[in-house]
Amino acid sequence: MLATVRNPKMWKTLTGRRIFVFSRKLHSLKTIEIPNLYLDEMIWRNLDKWSNKTATVCAETNRSYTYQELYNKSNSIASFLHKFGMVKDDTVAIMLPNIPEYPIVFLGAVQAGVQVTPLNPSFTPGEISKQLLQTNSKMVFCTNEKYITVLKTLQSAKLYVPIVTINTQNDTSPPNDSIDFDDIAQTSPSNFQQVFQRDVNDTIVIPFSSGTGGHPKGVELTHRNLVSNLHQMCVHEYDLLLSEADDLCPEQNVMPFILPMYHIYGMTMIMLQGLLRGCKLVTVPKLTSTMLVNVLDNFRTTALFIVPPIVEMLLSNSHIKRSHFMKIKTIMSGGAPLGILQLKRLREKAGMDVNIFQGYGMTETSPLTHIQTTRINVGMKLGGIGLLLPSTEAKIILPESGKQVGSNEVGEIVLRGPQIMKGYYKNEMANQEVFMSDGWLKTGDLGCYDDDGHFFITGRRKELIKVKMAKTH
Hints:
Elements: E1 3-14, E2 17-28, H1 39-44, H2 47-50, E3 54-58, E4 64-66, H3 67-83, E5 91-95, H4 102-112, E6 115-118, H5 125-135, E7 137-143, H6 147-156, E8 163-166, E9 179-180, H7 181-186, E10 203-205, E11 208-209, E12 217-222, H8 223-233, E13 254-257, H9 264-276, E14 280-283, H10 289-298, E15 303-306, H11 308-316, E16 330-333, H12 340-350, E17 355-361, E18 368-371, E19 387-388, E20 393-397, E21 404-405, E22 411-416, E23 423-424, H13 428-434, E24 441-449, E25 455-460
Parallel strand pairs: 3-14, 5-6, 5-7, 7-8, 8-9, 13-14, 15-16, 16-17
Antiparallel strand pairs: 1-2, 2-20, 3-4, 10-12, 11-12, 12-23, 17-18, 18-19, 20-21, 20-22, 22-24, 24-25
Helix pairs in contact: 3-4, 5-6, 8-9, 11-12
């Protein structure tokens, strides 16, 4: 996708493509029609193509599910939630590490018509209770190991909600007062009957983000937000999983799930995109340098979605060799800018046959708005974050005055598109601070675009305080 600046007074050609300039807004050259689908409909629409292929496998235990099993069990979760009395706009909390059951719970809840709020399993009791209270969560899914922590947190906060536990070690029994995941996921209704009237603009997931600053806030993402972002990623020019040789990639892509599932980057770009595309997701409950080597040794990895600290793991571990990258077609780094030196070192270690991309996004944008691409000749620039995704708009404004500026001028990046959140959950003050007129979202990031429409990040409008690895963009 080539981004274009519009101005009715001037036409010009960039890299052989005619573009037109109008005001100082930057539009993606490609406009696409977003399918009017619920997220679960989109994920399962190609189930017949790969129903017997492995969907998820645990790197520690080899516990795995096929796509058909994943679908059946998510139906069971949806049916259970209805029978339990969940109604539309109720919220289910998922406090799980990266395990094969995560997408079962997530998609089951979405299919049931309720909302999901993901929690970091390493949260303190105070952090857990705060998010549960803010979202009025009616049920918590966690592992057997986290049951006591969750139970004591609920008791302390005087929250009386059921806990569903998942056995990840195969050697422990479910706690006496919990609901056993295996019991509710074994009965597979052949055809789950939706009892609520749903709408594509319904909120389905409430991750938390500090946004442009301040305390974490719930971000309301809808079916349409996530379906839009997934559809944008699948457009040929920006598709990171497509084989260059064959549009219908003959081999199943294998993607290690080494980013947190509770984080929007991992949730959308690995879990949802991976399942939509029939990939094998290798879940890693706890990432260490040794585990990273084991995953690359034992699974024929074809795509890596990572962040700069994991790039450092790849570079510093002497056990990771060029041979580990032989099947990898794509490495995508996000979450924070990847330094130019890091990029050069990674390219030297991985080899020139591996495409290394950077992109840009935030929890509030589902997350992706920009991506680098080799399929457009201005799509790869050192230090850049890429071009706007299809049907996405951006402009650069001066933070103090709100005045729009043109190419090669630094200001705050503001965005508009179908992937932009509905708003912050029950926080009108925060919404007024971040939204401009006509749906434009202030990112809090400073940057610019060049004459080719390639974007660059130069800094933050406000200094951010990062806590653990849970910072959401």
